[in-house]
Design goal:
By secondary structure, this protein is α+β, with helices and mostly antiparallel strands. The protein has three domains: about 55 residues; about 55 residues; about 110 residues, no CATH class. Helices cover about 50% and strands about 15% of the residues. It contains seven helices and eight strands; from the N terminus they run H-H-E-H-H-E-E-E-E-E-H-E-H-E-H. A five-stranded antiparallel β-sheet has the order 1-2-3-4-7, with no helix packed on it. A three-stranded antiparallel β-sheet has the order 5-6-8. A hairpin with a 2-residue loop joins strand 5 and strand 6. The longest helix is centred in the N-terminal third of the chain and has 29 residues. It is globular and about 65 Å long.
Length: about 240
């Protein structure tokens, strides 16, 4: 994994279009590309940290067993509120430009739907937990366990310039049997569709982009490799009892 010229190019393009849009009164473009510049700047910062940690040769990575790494609500609401502001700005300044009006509506509606689904808890809070037996993953209203011994491959890569950790397992049906849910049949179908989607787009059973959990992707990758390849290390993932 490394910083590529396309990362800088995307950032520069968004900056140029947002500045040009502002000075020539093309305000819809300013709102769209300005928000894009902010998001890309954050993504590039995260990637810089990941590249630095990936190039550091750590002897081991220690993870607190049983700790729940939850989806960052601050980051989620920052993105959704940014979409709402950006979409509203486009609508206010688009005038009679039908294409820009349509873009503004799509951005605004998407941001509002995401915001209210999370606000009223229609969408669950994703999380991951390192356990002695495997990696427990929480998705919308259900959880499953990827057992260490069921993993057949781990790869650090990118998709659309976003760093991902890709996991391949021996049998996805084995992971499916670990699903814990109040509506088992419904969530088994969702799980199978998710795996099919991952195989089609990523070529792997599971794909993790960990910035939403506040975890550095390079350290996450090294931790997965460590507990997969060194079973003796898994004992440290047993939750420690706290003094009452």
């Amino acid at each position: 994994m490394k910083i590529k010229g396309s990362d800088y190019a995307s950032l520069i393009i968004c900056l140029v279009f947002s500045v040009v849009g502002y000075f020539i009164s093309f305000y819809p473009g300013f709102f769209i590309f300005g928000f894009g510049f902010i998001i890309l700047s954050f993504s590039l910062f995260v990637k810089f940290k990941a590249v630095k940690n990936f190039n550091n040769h750590f002897h081991s990575v220690s993870v607190e067993g049983g700790r729940k790494f939850s989806q960052s609500l601050i980051l989620f609401y920052f993105v959704t509120i940014g979409l709402i502001i950006s979409g509203s700005g486009v609508l206010v300044t688009a005038g009679n430009n039908f294409v820009m009006l349509l873009c503004g509506v799509v951005i605004l509606v998407f941001g509002l739907v995401m915001f209210f689904l999370k606000l009223f808890r229609f969408s669950g809070n994703n999380f991951i937990i390192f356990e002695e037996s495997g990696l427990r993953v929480g998705r919308n209203r259900y959880t499953f366990l990827i057992q260490w011994d069921s993993i057949t491959g781990v790869q650090l890569g990118e998709w659309n310039n976003v760093p991902y950790v890709f996991l391949q397992v021996f049998l996805e049906e084995g992971v499916e049997r670990t699903i814990d849910s109040k509506n088992l049949e419904r969530d088994k179908k969702k799980f199978r569709k998710s795996c099919e989607w991952n195989q089609d787009f990523f070529g792997s059973s599971f794909a993790f982009s960990t910035s939403q959990y506040g975890i550095d992707i390079a350290l996450f990758y090294k931790a997965i490799l460590q507990y997969w390849q060194q079973p003796i290390k898994r004992k440290e993932l047993v939750p420690k009892k706290k003094i009452q």
